[in-house]
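Because showing beats explaining, we let one protein speak, sequence and backbone structure tokens together, and leave readers to judge.
___
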Amino acid sequence: MTNFAITASELRKSYGDKVVLDGVDLSVPEGSIFALLGPNGAGKTTAVKILSTLISAGPESGRVEVAGHDLATSPQKVRGAIGVTGQFSA
């Protein structure tokens, strides 16, 4: 059985009437290296901000787990289990 570092089902995010994530599903196995690639405006930064608890996905979004913790109910546990650095931090 595969354990997942990240699982997201129907990840959604809108800013007003602007939809930036529309039903994203992903599963990242523990111990793997994962790259999130896409053109500008594809929602990559928004997805990372949601997965790292920097912004809320909102009530319209589906279920998201990071490090085995539900993002909606246990954001502090998610924060305790992850480390995030931005592209330009060096």
User: Anything to note?
Assistant: The chain has one domain: 4-81. The beta strands are 4-15, 18-29, 64-66, 69-70. The helical segments are 44-51, 75-81.
